[in-house]
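Practice problem 4.
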């Protein structure tokens, strides 16, 4: 019997993977829809397995699949075919990775129930011992801030309250990021396991996954996974035979970027407009429904089972302390090989751009990359040897964020990108604070003067002042981070700005 694996993730489906799957089924293959391996430029990437081998081909289109079938793809006769890849595990893009969160993604159907050993081992420990392990591991939030996870866990556990909650922020809104989506579409049980363990450690009985509405495939798969998890006693009463009760729900958000900020997300969960809350109190003390709430993003929760499996010390030894463990980086933009790379912290930007990415898709010279989403810094070619750690990025005025790297060639105009940063803030601001609401508008207007060649030193000084005010006085990172792409573009690429100045 020949089995054909065809990804069901959003990128593959957009590239007509559903049609490819139907064609393979009509040809007599048993088709299994799996998650994406993260090699986006090869999607749809199919794998064909018989009694001996599992061989990959890609990118396979509806136009090429008929040729592959007629030439013998279902019988492993196409070693010299142009789309032949061989064993996908031996592909150079995957071979050098160290996958702990994404280790199961792409092997089988995303709703195949996994071995729950990690969760069982966690439930055999005391909650305090689990939190100690998280502290030893050095796990930090993978959503952007890099805040030590154990502080949140210990705060929630130590706060007396009638109820406690977990909230998973799956509102993945940063440009160039797709790790959350890939995991939810490819291995939702990894997230479920992580949230069960975190719930046990903190004393929370209910977890809620806040999913962005733009991820319909992730929604469908996660709902299926919840049903299976409940049937197999991974969630519900007496989880896996223990005395711990824990349940999970899915909440689909309305799509506002600001709801990626944890307090705006909580407001949305409670049925109100997504606006930030003034802190303190922090959510770990007073969050959802004013109860102690542990808020993490998808990759933060999904990292927990690996820590239980390896132990805190072994996990901490990965990476470059205090940036411990692995991070799921995502390559996008004008790049030849876009996709997901999970590696220990410490890999350089150059290894990402030139190694994994193989340079620009256009073939033109690299000019800049933006790291950390639409409010992240623009970095120059001279900074490509910087290691990807929280500390090294901070030293050059940048942040890792959710791990997205967007690549640009030498045709990009950084003045236009700076204008876009202000425009993005204008469109996505919740409007609660004046620096963000008004500063973004005035910043866009002033940058348009610069781009139009109507600016003098006065306009440049105004941009400096606006950035200072937004940075220092905005209530949240929406306004506080908008100056980062603006300042980094103006400092590193002055030639894109100053030549437009009026004499």
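Answer key:
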């Amino acid at each position: 019997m020949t089995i054909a694996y065809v990804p069901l993730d959003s990128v593959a489906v957009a590239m007509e993977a559903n049609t490819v799957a139907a064609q393979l089924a009509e040809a007599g293959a048993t088709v299994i829809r799996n998650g994406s391996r993260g090699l986006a430029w090869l999607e749809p990437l199919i794998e064909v397995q018989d009694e001996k081998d599992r061989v990959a081909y890609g990118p396979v289109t509806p136009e090429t699949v008929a040729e592959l079938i007629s030439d013998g793809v279902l019988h492993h006769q196409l070693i010299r075919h142009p789309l032949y890849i061989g064993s996908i595990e031996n592909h150079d893009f995957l071979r050098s990775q160290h996958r702990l969160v994404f280790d199961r993604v792409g092997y089988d159907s995303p709703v195949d129930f996994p071995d729950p050993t990690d969760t069982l081992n966690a439930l055999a420990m005391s909650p305090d011992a689990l939190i100690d392990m998280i502290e030893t591991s050095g796990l930090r939030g993978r959503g952007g801030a890099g805040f030590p996870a154990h502080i949140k866990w210990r705060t929630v556990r130590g706060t007396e309250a009638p109820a406690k909650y977990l909230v998973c922020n799956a509102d993945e809104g940063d440009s160039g990021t797709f790790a959350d989506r890939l995991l939810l579409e490819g291995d939702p049980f990894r997230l479920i396991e992580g949230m069960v363990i975190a719930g046990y450690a903190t004393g929370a009985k209910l977890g809620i996954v806040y999913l962005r509405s733009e991820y319909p495939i992730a929604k469908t798969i996660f709902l299926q996974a919840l049903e299976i998890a409940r049937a197999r006693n991974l969630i519900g009463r007496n989880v896996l035979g223990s005395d711990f009760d824990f349940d999970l729900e899915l909440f689909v958000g309305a799509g506002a970027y600001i709801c990626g900020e944890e307090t705006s997300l909580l407001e949305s969960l409670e049925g109100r407009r997504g606006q930030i809350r003034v802190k303190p109190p922090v959510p770990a003390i007073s969050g959802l429904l004013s109860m102690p709430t542990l808020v993490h993003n998808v990759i933060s929760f999904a990292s927990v089972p690996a820590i239980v499996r390896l132990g805190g010390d072994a996990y901490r030894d990965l990476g470059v302390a205090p940036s411990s463990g692995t991070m799921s980086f995502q390559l996008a933009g004008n790049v030849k090989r876009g996709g997901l790379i999970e590696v220990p912290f410490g890999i350089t930007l150059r290894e990402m751009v030139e190694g994994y990415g193989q340079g620009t898709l256009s073939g033109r010279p690299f000019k800049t990359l933006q790291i950390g989403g639409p409010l992240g810094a623009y970095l120059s070619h001279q900074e490509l040897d910087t290691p990807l750690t929280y500390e090294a990025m901070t030293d050059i005025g940048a942040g890792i964020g959710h791990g997205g790297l967007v690549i640009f060639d030498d045709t990009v105009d950084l003045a236009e990108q700076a204008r876009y940063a202000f425009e993005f803030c204008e469109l996505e601001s919740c409007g609660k604070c004046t620096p963000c609401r008004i500063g973004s508008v005035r910043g866009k207007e002033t940058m348009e003067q610069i781009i139009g060649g109507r600016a003098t030193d006065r306009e440049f000084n105004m941009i400096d002042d606006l950035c200072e005010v937004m940075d220092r006085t905005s209530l949240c990172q929406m306004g506080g981070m908008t100056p980062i792409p603006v300042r980094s573009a103006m400092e590193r690429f002055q030639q894109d700005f100053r030549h437009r100045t009026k004499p």
